[in-house]
Amino acid sequence: MKPRLPLLLIALTLAVFGAASLSAETLKVLYFTKSSGYEHSVVRRGSMGEPSHSENVLKSLAAQHDIAFTFSKDGSLFSEDYLNQFDVVFFYTSGNLEMVGSDGNPPMSAAGKLALLSWVANGGGFMATHAGGDSFHTYEKFNGNTPKDKRGYRYQLNGEASDPYIKMLGGEFINHGPQQVATALVTDTEFPGMGPAGEAIHVMEEWYSLKEFSPINHVVLVMQTAGMEGSDYQRPDYPLSWAKPYGEGRVWYSGMGHREDVWEAEYFQSILVGAMEWTGGRTDANITPNLLEAAPGALTLPPAR
Question: Which residues contact 132 (CB under 8 A, 6 or more apart)?
Answer without folding.
Answer: 91, 92, 93, 169, 253
